[in-house]
Structure to design on (345 residues):
């Protein structure tokens, strides 16, 4: 390869760090300037000019990200999510009570009859007799009402209090399936960040449509179906239910409902950032389901390590940080445009 060709290839690699739109509009011009300024016999970009190009390219991309944080579409998504997520959790709680998992009678071994007689189901109406569950749902109702009323700071205080209660009542938290615990945690991490950031619950309430309701109800159904499958494969019940036909049925139903929710969201063209927030909210839940509940060594929440907790909560925490940064960037003055600088992709 000739020296000019090798040098040009090196410069093109550096220019690849710029946004696509900038490269298409000014990439060749910048390449010509770089080639013209090269030393005779130079075969690769110099260290300092490489640093200058990378610094300029990364700065341009950061400005693009900052501008994205100020976009109304993203702020509206946070507002809608701050209202929709608490309502979704209440729907998931209602389904957990209405649709419990019951071990098939044929698999209720005599040795376990005394246990199953006291707790014949996982979830169901018996949950209403558990003070922890009643208080937890009561807190969730209060949080949802405060958000619907637009009282964001009181809602934040309620979320903080609810989180503290969960920590204190952890000794009875096994009454709630672990995937639902993670779903609740992911939802409130993002909700709290949205409320602390730029989200206006009153605007979120105005933007909430029947399309959002349909998607959330389908998603709640998918959550309950997959939770039933988790219940059917967890612990001693999992050993008794192994090979039971309904576990496969629950899995199929959960996939069908999840796909239906996604299709409705696409057809109705719901806010893409709102759908991204939903995906991040569901991430810890899906990760827990992906690990076999019958194996304690693989149960992420059952025996958490720092690595497990990072794996479970890193995406929601990062999204929460972005939501808070949104509030900070929107309070600042508009970013000045550099003379002659094109828009970025």
């Amino acid at each position: 390869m000739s020296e000019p060709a090798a040098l040009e290839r090196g410069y093109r690699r550096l220019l690849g760090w710029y946004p696509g739109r900038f490269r298409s509009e000014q990439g060749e011009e910048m390449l010509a300037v770089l080639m013209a300024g090269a030393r005779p016999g130079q075969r690769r970009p110099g260290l300092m000019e490489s640093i200058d190009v990378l610094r300029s390219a990364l700065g341009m991309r950061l400005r693009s990200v900052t501008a994205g944080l100020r976009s109304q579409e993203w702020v509206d998504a946070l507002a809608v999510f701050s209202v929709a997520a608490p309502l979704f959790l209440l729907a998931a709680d209602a389904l957990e009570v209405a649709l419990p998992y019951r071990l098939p009678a044929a698999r209720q071994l005599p040795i376990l009859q005394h246990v199953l007689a006291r707790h014949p189901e996982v979830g169901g109406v018996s949950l209403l007799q558990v003070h922890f569950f009643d208080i937890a749902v009561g807190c969730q109702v209060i949080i949802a009402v405060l958000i619907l009323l637009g009282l964001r700071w009181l809602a934040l205080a309620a979320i903080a209090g609810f989180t503290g209660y969960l920590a204190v009542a952890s000794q009875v938290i096994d009454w709630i399936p672990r995937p639902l615990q993670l779903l609740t945690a992911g939802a409130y991490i993002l909700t709290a960040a949205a409320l602390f950031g730029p989200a206006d619950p009153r605007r979120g309430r105005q933007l909430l449509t029947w399309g959002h309701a349909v998607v959330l109800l389908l998603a709640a159904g998918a959550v309950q179906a997959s939770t039933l499958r988790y219940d059917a494969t967890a612990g001693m019940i999992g050993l008794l239910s192994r090979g039971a036909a309904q576990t496969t049925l629950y899995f199929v139903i959960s996939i069908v409902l999840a796909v239906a929710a996604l299709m409705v969201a696409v057809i109705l063209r719901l806010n893409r950032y709102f759908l991204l927030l939903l995906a991040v909210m569901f991430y810890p839940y899906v990760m827990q389901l992906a690990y076999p509940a019958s194996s304690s060594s693989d149960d992420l929440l059952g025996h958490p390590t720092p690595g497990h907790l990072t794996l479970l909560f890193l995406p929601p925490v990062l999204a929460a940080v972005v939501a808070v940064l949104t509030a900070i960037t929107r309070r600042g003055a508009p970013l000045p445009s550099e003379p002659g600088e094109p828009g970025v992709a």
The radius of gyration is 26 Å. Residues 3-69 form one domain. The CA atoms of residues 86 and 287 lie 21 Å apart.
